[in-house]
Amino acid sequence: MADMTLRQWLLTDTPTSRRHAKLSALYQGWLAFRSNTMAMIGLGILLLLVFIAAAAPLLAPHDPFVQNLGNRLAPLGSEGHLLGTDSLGRDILSRLIYGARITLYIVALVALIAPVVGLLVGTVSGYVGGWVDIVLMRITDIFLAFPRLVLALAFVAALGAGIENAVIAISLTAWPPYARIARAETLTIRSSDYIAAIKLQGAGGLRIITKHIWPLCISSLIVRVTLDMAGIILAAAGLGFLGLGAQPPSPEWGAMISEGRRFILDHWWVATMPGLAIFTVSLAFNLLGDGLRDVLDPKAGE
Amino acid sequence: MSMLNIEGLNVWFGRDRDRVDAVKGASFDVGTGESFGLVGESGSGKSTILRAITGLAPTWSGRITVDGRAVEKARPRAFYKQVQMVFQDPYASLHPRHSVDAVLAETLKLHGFTDIDARVAKLLDDVGLGQKFRFRYPHQLSGGQRQRVAIARALAPEPQLLLLDEPTSALDVSVQAEILNLLADLRQGHGLTFLMVSHDLSVVGHMCDRLAVMKDGEIVEVMDVAALRAMKATHPYSQHLLQASV
Fold first, then answer.
1. Strands B210-215 and B35-39: what pairing?
2. A37-54 and A269-296 helices cross at what angle (nearest 10)?
3. Which domains does chain B have, with CATH numbers?
4. A197 interaction partners in chain B (CB closer than 8 Å)
5. pLDDT at position A3, please?
6. Long-range CB contacts (< 8 A, 24+ apart) of A56-59?
7. Which of B51, B184, B188, B230 gives a 20 to 30 Å CA spacing to B162?
8. Is residue A32 part of a domain?
9. Contact partners, residue A242, CB within 8 Å, separation at least 6
10. Residue A249: cis peptide before it, omega within 30 degrees of 0
11. Mean pLDDT across B93-103
12. Strand order through the sheet with B20-31
């Protein structure tokens, strides 16, 4: 065993311990993921985004909040302002870099709230069935019946403008599709033989849902969440654009577009640069989601 | 002494106009240590009887008695310590994300065993798999190996009655014989009682002492294997079945 390389150890067909088996499965997933170039590009962009957000004070050439009215609307590549300045003379590049933090914050919070709620509602609804299923699914239908942004607008209007409320509003409108997916998966899983087999060991509903159904639902939810992330960023940007998300002078990308809109004909870069940032990150999430679907889909892994 | 007694068992699915009667008034008796076969064509209700015994088919009436105790609708965990089942398709009966170790350890834990590590190792030896398969996932196993894992899982609670739902029909012919021999050995070694469903008369002839022939949800004849071998069926349908299998 000593002359085994780490790679061989990870790729073995005969794992020798629980940890070994887990690591081996993880490594094989990573190998499958790595062979997908587009997904790796998406992952690279997102890692870069995380790095930029973490190192924002070191990377930003200027303070994103300092105004300089003498140098407003400077064009691309002007001295000291690579991406120009906005209507108040603030450096656009620095604002984009700090804006990455807000974007990640929104994405992380929504990704924590919406799929978890959807998973809970969907699996309980699918597994328990009966009137529980009917009640939960009708509630889901009510949420689905509203256009997403309009519902988010209503929530923000009720809760008050601000980034946290925007996140809550987006999460509240984002969970129903996850609940639907989780329920559909649960319906196919719950009638399978391996669920019947664990029932024959006297396992209760809670154990079956959390230990046997969740692990199989989670992968398709992760894929769906990454594919939806683009939409979530756009919804957050949309709320920012409408003035209901992040409030000035916060450098949120959607709010920056909103500010730049007034000058879009004469000073196009003010709105375009944050637009490009949103586009890049949304695209990265889509690419990542596509790659993850190939790796995580249990039906394809057979 | 009978291990399993079934009297006037009816099983149905759906209700009112959609109601389908899968089993109608089935009665038979399986002695302790006996191996009893249920044969019939697909759709004759033989698997449904197994599912009714285990509680997987909840709508039934009649009397089911296991080891002298009547079975209630809600089965306590002690019931599953006594009665276990091996499913037909080993590709569908193992959780795709659980390793062999996880499957067996969870089963043992649910039945309140504490020396789980030692028991998992022993179960794997019992079904002829050995320790190197312990941490594999189902997709790393062949059909026969998967069925051995499923058998190990059914043996884990140390049951007295093992229900076998066509345990070899999804397997290659060469693997079928191995699994059947394993089951025969285990029955001797553990003193098990078998109730085995099959549409293959030669499998039943090899494995069972007595058998019941089913048609359209009813048991048409109960005979012993000697009669089967001598082709001495009394009911016309059983005769037809015998003729077809020669």
1. parallel
2. 130
3. 2-87+161-245 (3.40.50.300)
4. 85, 87, 93-94, 150, 153
5. 60
6. A56/A97, A56/A98, A56/A100, A56/A101, A59/A97
7. B230
8. no
9. A153, A258
10. yes
11. 90
12. B20-31, B2-13, B60-66, B69-70
Are A13 and B136 in contact (CB < 8 Å)? yes
- Check residue A116 and give its pLDDT: 93
* Any domain includes A19: no
On whether the CB atoms of residues A180 and A140 are closer than 8 A, the answer is yes
Comparing CB atoms, the residue among B87, B96, B132 nearest residue A197 is: B87
A218, closest residue in chain B (CA to CA): B97
pTM score, whole prediction: 0.82
Question: Residue A87 above 70 pLDDT?
Answer: yes
What's the structural domain count of chain A? 1
CB A265 within 8 A of CB A281: no
- Asked if residue A21 belongs to a domain, the reply is no
CATH number of the CATH domain containing A164: 1.10.3720.10
Average pLDDT for chain A: 85
**How confident is the model over A101-138, as pLDDT tens digits?**
988 888 889 888 999 999 999 999 999 989 999 999 99
- Work out whether strand B20-31 and strand B218-224 pair parallel, antiparallel, or are unpaired: unpaired
**Nearest CA distance, B117 vs chain A (angstrom):** 12
Query: Which tokens hold the place of A63?
Result: 């303070």
Q: Structural domain of residue A292, as residue ranges? A: 87-301
Q: pLDDT tens, B9-54?
A: 999 998 888 888 899 999 999 999 999 999 988 888 889 999 999 9
Predicted pLDDT of residue A300: 47
Q: Is B132 on the interface with A (CB under 8 A)?
A: yes
For residue A88, the one-letter residue type is L
The predicted complex's ipTM stands at 0.87
In a domain? residue A50: no
Q: Provide the β-strand partners of residue B224.
A: B210
